[in-house]
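Two folds, back to back.
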Amino acid sequence: MKIAVVGATGLVGTKMMQILEERNFPVTELIPVASEKSVGKEISFKGKKYAVVGMQTAIDSKPVIALFSAGGGTSLEWAPKFAAAGITVIDNSSAWRMDATKKLVVPEINADTLTAEDKIIANPNCSTIQMVMVLNPLHKKYKIKRIVVSTYQSVTGTGVKAVTQLMNERKGIKGEMAYPYPIDFNAIPQIDVFTDNGYTKEEMKMVNETRKIMGDNSIRLTATTVRIPVMGGHSESVNVEFENDFDLNEVRTLLENTAGVIVIDDIKNLKYPMPMDAHEKDEVFVGRLRRDESQDKTLNMFIVSDNLRKGAATNAVQIAEYLVKNKLC
């Protein structure tokens, strides 16, 4: 099975190849794809060397699946060309997420909506994926009315340039800036550009994508997204109001029995999820489960996940695994 990875030299593309190898995905030939300046570079995969190729060469090679992580503009231009050649595209950018004709998929939640006709499949935003992984089983049980979420997001979500900025600042080295301000010893309450309503694109992604994935436009959601100087993963403080009341022990049991979710919630022993716990893991971690004492039927929690893995690369590979298992590609 030929698999293309578009954006193979970037942080997420590199992680995609790592996860394909870790999960022993049945790749017979890897086609690493990147911009023209990277064509000819060699990529190692499962002990073999593969040369980076350009877009048209990748299409001509006829991969079964193409995992895209090369930005929205590239995806808008090239994903339809791959799809027209019969290649199934799983796209990690924001380009197709809110397209009504495209599925937005977290496999544990809505992979069963996929068909062989879905040639461009959208991978959700990293901060949305980890939140809906925890909230979806609770929504089914208690029905969510409103969500208030504040995120504390890793610099790895921005990319190599941001990681370099953080490490340079730690060493006292002046260099290229990914952010308009220093990130070390700081928290920047802006992720992506601002929109006309005063929210950032990242914040609005969480609103719109959550409703689409969970299939419920009645859910009200407000978000504040913040970049912090960590590497291991994204964290989220989530306050969720339900239509129906809940028992806290029942909530805990429900989450403990949710595939892909791990509960770390033992405050007597100071056990709760942190980015360092999530680093290089595929699960979503949740803790600090407690009632909101200011209003009825409302729950507080803290959610952490590795944004490069379940928040991006692992979720895409899981979609590919579902397609192969169910002979949809």
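---
second:
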Amino acid sequence: MRLLLNWLLSAISLLIVSRVVPGFYLRGFTAAIIAALVIGLVNATIGLFLKIITLPITFLTLGLFWWVINAFMLMFASKLLSPDFVVRGFWPAFWGAIVLSLINMVLKALARDVEKA
């Protein structure tokens, strides 16, 4: 059940990011659900591998390089899901990754609080 909730919250986060970040486009809720699934799979496979091999650079940049990796993962997912999910360039992907992480964090914290109540 928690997995489905996280998937739904990620899709909602993607919809919010598409409204906030210029150059980050999503065509509807169905596309958001599919994009959330693909982004999760890409981050769990390729993203994990990249984060492991770039660990020294991540330490040197105090973790900021992870935003770059997340941006590239969003761009890769965008290439797979075009035209329903489009990220137009590195900077929209970079800012989208940051905003997506923040919104995801807030929504999951709210869901945790509701679950405890």
